[in-house]
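Ligand: flavin mononucleotide. Inputs:
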Amino acid sequence: MMQCTDIHDRYLFRLITKKSILYTEMVTTGAIIHGECIEQLRFNDLVEHPVAVQLGGSDPKDLAACAKICDAMGYDEINLNVGCPSERVQKGAFGACLMKEPTLVSECIEAMQEVTTLPVTVKCRIGVDDNDDYEFLHNFTESIMNPLMQTLIVHARVAILKGLSPRQNRSVPPLKYDHVYQLKKDFPNLEIVINGGIQNINESIQHLNEVDGVMLGRSAYDNPMITSQVDELIFNASPQICDRKKILNSYLLYCLEQNDLGHSYSRTLKHVFGINKGMPHARKYRKLILDTMQQNNLQNNLEDLVSLV
Ligand SMILES: Cc1cc2nc3c(=O)[nH]c(=O)nc-3n(C[C@H](O)[C@H](O)[C@H](O)COP(=O)(O)O)c2cc1C
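Predicted complex:
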């Protein structure tokens, strides 16, 4: 998620869940090829795995070049964005508008598969503009699938390319989970991951009766602690420490270190606004986070912040 799932946010999530796959923000092929996004591509090899990079682009050669770079960097998965409806992305002829060009998407996937053995996955919508019937999604999937492609992540809303902002495109078009469920029935060998409007782990578990995986966006970003039971309840792994105070304390110590390395508190602390969501001192806590960013001094407030969660 742009402006959200950066290296610091992913560090925070790894304190809460070890097993979930974490995704980078979308990084465009142009930015990678012109060397403009070293920071966005950087990840912490020691703690972040499994981590997927999401690429935005539509030129098979450029995507292949970027997949090669990301493979060499040590990412675990290369994901192609076929779901972003923003005007900037449409001007670049990638993102959601690619759903209308399945042959090109297929060429992009194959070009990447030729240069990497990493899983190449796609994140798409259930449709685009008037192409909102199930058949469209079925045909799109059929056209882009190949034996090496294992996973399709589907945001269960159409993208409306004209007239809705990216934000509206995440709430106005209705969620149609049944289209994603049907896709799993029709393509049983393809791993289908459902996304869109899923609020918590209980809802995720319900979806897992129908599909193979669940992707959480806003609910997890806005309230990271909802993922604290993922390892135990979804992956049957040992539970993580769910102690909010310990997690926040570790993350704040990380923020101190990062500040010394030049990463401002406004960049690192924004990710923990929601760590106390719904808890008694949430308001006071958020205000203190804001003050800390403004004062640019975490050392003074660290203990108070931890005591408020
Ligand atoms: C601030 C923000 C940035 C986003 N950036 C991306 C992105 O870079 N790539 C992407 O595939 N989806 C992006 N999305 C969409 C989410 O990944 C997700 O598909 C969408 O929000 C629906 O899922 P949710 O209801 O769980 O949030 C973004 C969403 C938000 C709110």
